[in-house]
Amino acid sequence: MAVTTKAAIASFGGKLLKCAHNASTTNCEMAFNLYLPPQATINPLRRVPLLIYLAGLTCTGDNGAEKGFFQHAASQKGIAVLYPDTSPRMHELQYPSPFLSKASEHYAKHLSKRISHYTILHVNPWFLTQTGGLKIQGEDDSYDFGSGAGFYVDATKEPWSKGYNMYSYITSELPKAVFDTFEQIDGSRVSIFGHSMGGHGALTLFLKNPGSYKSVSAFAPIANPSNCDWGRKAFGGYFGEENQSKWAEHDATELVKNWKGEPLDILIDVGTSDNFYKQGQLLPENFEKAAQGKGKVDIRWQDGYDHSYFTMATFADDHVNHAARYLLG
After folding, report:
1. Which pLDDT score is estimated for 79?
2. What distance in Å separates the CA atoms of residue 283 and residue 286, rounded to the nearest whole number?
3. Do strands 216-219 and 185-195 pair parallel, antiparallel, or not at all (unpaired)?
């Protein structure tokens, strides 16, 4: 459970920490990024709220931390940002060098043949980590199921139930480890947001746990997974085709129909050039329709923007400021 800090990188006046800990829910070591704003690093007695960012398919905790530009507004508002991984992973190799070894180059080329629209192997100036899953057969066969695609659920179907418990990890084990280790963070003030699969995770975790999160927002969320190819594949694999009631428990469109909490105030950005929206993977209209009468769901259609981190970086400040209204109000 003890958290190890492997690197500390200056960012917008604060520190971006590269961390890892052994997790019982996932049965492996889990890596995460944590941004501490200058308000927490200059005055360690000051407690700051926490904003959790859930990433999309194939991503790690590095993607949002290094490409989302969320630290910009977070540093201004005095908000810590937590970037978890997207599935259980085994951390196989580390090189304290900015240069790829020959083996790493071969590994990257192998992965690029399988997956073209996301980056699996991440390199930064501090260290290189090659990651795999829990060595479950078929775990690395596709980009949208298994390693890098935990979908923020607790799997009930074997063999995935042995470690694919990202719902429990994100809602319980990880925040406890962070709050116990970093006393500068106020565990009573937490918000959540995410992208794509992580947008699905943010919406469902918020809706399933009234009062646990002060606010929620999303970029291009998979808003009705029971009715898209990505979601059907994930839910069928993790829960079983026959367990439709379990599907509904992790489908934001189904959950929002039964929302009994305070009126909603949800910010969602979707790009009009998002190919995954065009393919019917996101279905934000279904969520918007189901949420009628439950409060405000502000879906902003961003002309010409796609599914990438360029879109998130462009509107990052808006989402951090959305959370700040609830975390600091």
Report:
1. 98
2. 6
3. parallel
Show Cβ contacts of residue 133 under 8 Å, excluding neighbours closer than 6 positions.
87, 88, 89, 90, 139, 140, 146, 147
Give the number of other Cβ atoms within 10 Å of residue 203's Cβ.
30
pTM of the model: 0.89
Lookup result for tokens 């492996």: 28
Helix H segments across 61-215? Answer: 61-67, 70-77, 102-114, 166-168, 174-181, 197-208
Torsion angle of the four alpha carbons 267, 218, 315, 9, in this order, in degrees rounded to the nearest 10 = 130
CA distance 80 to 275: 32
The residues annotated as belonging to the active site are 196, 274, 307
Mean pLDDT for 235-256 is 97
Query: Is 99 a residue whose pLDDT tops 70?
Result: no
AA identity, residue 312:
M
Integer Cα distance of 134 and 146 in angstroms: 9
DSSP H stretches of helix in 140-184: 166-168, 174-181
User: CA–CA separation, 149 vs 204, rounded Å?
Assistant: 16
Given a contact cutoff of 8 angstroms between Cβ atoms, the answer to whether 88 and 27 are in contact is yes
